[in-house]
Write a sequence for this structure.
């Protein structure tokens, strides 16, 4: 290797070392600088990928010199890709056009990539991601090349670790620190420029429920003219832990014909891909659940329609109680309810169950309350559920975001098995696919009140369940 190139590597390492020690810079900016200082001295393109919290996906975080089409090729599977994060060792691909370890060979070929070098990033003795180098000419990477990228990977690990520790220290000093179940570097490292405020608000909701997300990571080709792609579809979000894509639209449902067509085409071409489309009404109702958005600004004016009478509810509760008593005969399950809306349903349910049961409750924080940026357990269960069967009782399941969080929390306590008993299932609004073993009623996509369910803390005491009628609040000018 020429002495001049060794000096170039040395200067790049010095620049990055000085950057990493600069605590005034955001982590995303530091990572961009690292990637740039890998690519330029090697006269190549480079990228930084990080593992999601489940260590099942490699997500693109930063790049230099790569075409956007290659970046948006999709998330990588460590088992199907170069495997540097699995082995913890550098991987060299001399000819990317023929190597079976390249997960997306067609995108690699179109990007003109011939050789690749992949070096794992190790944090706390565990692979956390990778730095990859791409050349357009066949290259025999030298030991000095590999050592240089390894050094940059080590500096990346230091930068990520320092950023995580710095944030934790600030939270401790401010008295806001609460242990997180997800300490994935991906959450700390991503940098996003949202194209619409609704996307930013939706990302905050996902963060609140501790659901890992990536913004616009993949473009799906939809149509071609010969070998040229003429139409693509890029969903707004990908949720790695759920293997689910989310597309938001803030336009009225009647105006999204083109988007619906693209979505149908995507599902025809890629039937294995899970994707959910949230229309404006879905998004508004999601915000209203937390007291935000236009629907939250409207005022309830009573019941527009009775959906289920008191007698119908009691008959169905009795049927659920009998089914649970039969299924859990001889097992003594623990029944857990999440306050507050569940109290009517749970009180009636346990009084009809004919087997011994233990009962406990938990309370979780609400989105937008005070300064909480993630869901927190305000009141946890007191019963030790290790090795015990648990029945989680819910009043209503719609998006599944809250239920998904509670399920993960209870499963972390080592329950022997967990079943969900929900009185109402609003499946049309589901975002997270959560299993429901016992369901009282499947209901339409309406805002319901009564039998413990409220609107701004009213109507819980109604003995029946009805659809809330709304009227817009008048502005102060018109009063």
């Amino acid at each position: 290797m020429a002495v001049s190139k060794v000096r170039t590597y040395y200067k790049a390492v010095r620049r990055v070392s000085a950057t990493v020690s600069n605590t005034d810079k955001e982590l995303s900016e530091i990572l961009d600088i690292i990637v740039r200082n890998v690519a330029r001295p090697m006269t190549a393109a480079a990228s930084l990928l990080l593992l999601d919290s489940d260590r099942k996906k490699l997500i693109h975080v930063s790049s230099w010199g790569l075409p956007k089409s290659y970046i948006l090729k999709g998330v990588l599977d460590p088992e199907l890709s170069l495997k540097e994060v699995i082995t913890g060792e550098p991987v060299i691909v001399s000819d990317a056009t023929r190597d079976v370890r390249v997960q997306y060979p067609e995108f690699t070929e179109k990007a003109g990539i011939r050789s690749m070098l992949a070096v794992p990033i190790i944090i706390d003795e565990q692979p956390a991601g990778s730095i990859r180098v791409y050349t357009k000419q066949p290259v025999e990477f030298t030991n000095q090349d590999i050592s240089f990228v390894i050094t940059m990977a080590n500096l990346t690990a230091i930068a990520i670790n320092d950023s995580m520790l710095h944030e934790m220290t600030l939270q401790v000093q401010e008295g806001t620190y609460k242990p997180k179940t997800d300490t994935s570097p991906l959450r700390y490292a991503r940098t996003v420029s949202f194209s619409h405020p609704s996307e930013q608000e939706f990302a905050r909701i996902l963060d609140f429920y501790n659901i890992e997300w990536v913004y616009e990571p993949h473009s799906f080709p939809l149509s071609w003219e010969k070998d040229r792609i003429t139409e693509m579809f890029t969903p707004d979000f990908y949720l790695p832990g759920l293997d689910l894509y989310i597309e938001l639209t803030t336009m009225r449902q009647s105006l999204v014909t083109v988007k619906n067509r693209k979505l149908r085409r995507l599902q025809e071409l890629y039937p294995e891909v899970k994707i959910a489309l949230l229309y404006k009404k879905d998004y508004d109702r999601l915000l209203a659940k937390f007291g935000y958005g236009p629907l939250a600004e409207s005022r309830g004016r009573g019941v527009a329609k009775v959906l289920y009478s008191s007698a119908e509810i009691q008959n169905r509760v009795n049927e659920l109680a009998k089914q649970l008593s039969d299924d859990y005969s001889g097992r003594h399950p623990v029944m857990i309810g999440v306050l507050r809306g569940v109290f009517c349903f749970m009180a009636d349910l346990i009084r009809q169950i004919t087997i011994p049961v233990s009962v406990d409750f938990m309370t979780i924080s609400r989105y937008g309350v005070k300064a909480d940026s993630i869901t927190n357990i305000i009141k946890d269960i007191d019963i030790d559920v290790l090795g015990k069967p648990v029945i989680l009782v819910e009043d209503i399941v719609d998006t599944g975001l809250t239920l998904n969080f509670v399920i993960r929390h209870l499963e972390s306590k080592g329950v022997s098995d967990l079943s969900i008993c929900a009185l109402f299932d609003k499946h049309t609004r589901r975002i997270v696919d959560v299993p429901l073993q016992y369901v009282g009623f499947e209901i339409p996509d309406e805002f319901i009140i009564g039998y413990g369910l409220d609107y701004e803390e009213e109507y819980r005491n109604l003995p029946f369940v009805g659809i809330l009628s709304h009227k817009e609040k008048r502005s102060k000018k018109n009063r």
In short: Confidence is low (pLDDT under 50) at residues 472-479. The CA atoms of residues 121 and 153 lie 5 Å apart.
